[in-house]
Amino acid sequence: MATSFTPGLRVARGTIVTKERRLPLLGEVTVQVGQRVTFDQVVARTDLPGDIYPVQVAHALGVEPGELRDAMLKKEKDPVAKGETLALTRSFFGMFKSTCESPIDGTVESISLRTGQVILQRPPVPVEVTAFMDGEVIAVHEREGVTIRTQGAYIQGIFGVGGEAWGPLERATAGPADLLTVAQLKPEQRGKLLVGGAGVTLEALFKARELGVSGIIAGGFDKGDLTELLGFELGVAITGNEEIGITLILTEGYGEIPMTQRTWDLLGELQGRHASVNGATQIRAGVIRPEIVVPLPEKALVEESRHTGALEIGSEVRIIRQPWFGRKGRVSALPAELTVVESGARVRVLEVETEGGERVTLPRANIELIEK
Questions:
Q1: Beta strands 164-171; 193-195: pairing state
Q2: What is the β-pairing status of strands 42-48 and 145-156?
Q3: Is residue 364 classed as helix, strand or coil in its secondary structure?
Q4: First vs last Cα of the chain: how many Å apart?
Q5: What's the gap between Cα 65 and its chain centre?
Q6: Residues 262, 11: Cα–Cα separation, whole Å
Q7: pTM, entire model
Q8: CA 274 → CA 45, 82, 175, 189, distances in Å?
Q9: pLDDT in tens, 214-272
Q10: Max Cα separation, the chain?
Q11: CB of 200 closer than 8 Å to CB of 189
Q12: Residue 165 CB neighbour total at 10 angstroms
């Protein structure tokens, strides 16, 4: 059974989007405030320390830890190559020798005469952060990263997997209620972001990955197929770091669900334009939504999203807790006084008239606004 849940999702034809692009640890920022950048331009870089690799050298040589100083051929901070001799001992007038070779390429970080252990460290791992989207650098965070601003279309999905991806948008199905299958896929779609309708089959997703498609945006996807795609059952953790070779963004939910007409129409208007997408999702505290950003020239901006986030009579909402989970409706009353709920807590509540005409009263924390 399909389950659709789209609370708080933005679909804006024209808005301002800002993104912080930060390094995992201090490094070098490569751009300046006011500079125009492209999505694939490196804006900051650093080196992550290599992994630590302990080697029991004294044990390998058959000597006491205190004898290690005379046996070592390498000093602390010396570079070492895999297979290179770290230390050796000779016996019987040099006729016999014992050696200990480095198991990795790296650097000698420390030599312990107390334990007989030598700590090696692999070479640093270079990390580069790109701009993610075309735009302008509006702030530089010293040695940490930058903030980038762009103007254009912005669409949030409800769920996604896979990290950042880029490419021109292309609608791959005839309508928002159609399913994206293998039949709609072509070799010339390599590097593109395909827009499906009500969903995408697992076979089509695998085929798209094989063809080199950057990502797929669709209404829904089978939850069981998601487990097969990932190779494990997804828990409540943040997504976006999956190495699956393609990014998948769902705009509606699990199952085969027609894409909302507003989203479908906007993606159609943007067909052929270059987009930046990110499948990272976190549903619980600190909500993160998958997103689609399409930078546009100022003259192309025909609508600015002005949603204030204010809850008022008539606001469209989605209930996100049982027993009315997933129901959509409009706020019909906003009592000011605190109310005692079933758990015994005193909270602020609201009344929602569902699409079926039923009026329900529930804590305000149990709903999310549907942004326009």
A1: parallel
A2: unpaired
A3: helix
A4: 27
A5: 47
A6: 8
A7: 0.76
A8: 25, 44, 21, 13
A9: 999 999 999 889 888 888 877 656 888 888 999 999 998 888 989 988 899 999 999 99
A10: 98
A11: no
A12: 20
CA–CA separation, 339 and 186 (whole Å) = 58
Dump strand ranges (E) for 57-163. 79-80, 85-91, 96-101, 106-111, 117-121, 125-130, 135-141, 145-156, 159-161
Q: Tell me the β-bridge partners of 253.
A: 4, 220
- In the block, residue with structure tokens 């003259």: 299
8 Å CB contact between 169 and 163: no
In this structure, the number of other CB atoms found within 10 A of the CB of residue 86 comes to: 23
Q: The tokens of 1 are what? A: 């059974």
DSSP category for residue 288:
B
**Residue 23, both tokens:** 């390094």
HEC string for 178-238: CEECHHHCCHHHCCCEEECCCEECHHHHHHHHHHCCCEEEEEEECHHHHHHHHCCCCCCCC
User: Which single residue is written with the structure tokens 């769902």?
Assistant: 250
Tens of pLDDT along 293-337?
A: 999 986 555 444 444 456 788 888 877 666 776 677 889 988 878
* Rounded Cα–Cα distance for residues 349 and 148 (Å): 39
Q: Which residues pair with 112 in a beta bridge?
A: none
**Residues constituting the chain:** 372
Phi, psi of 271 (to 5 degrees): -55, 135
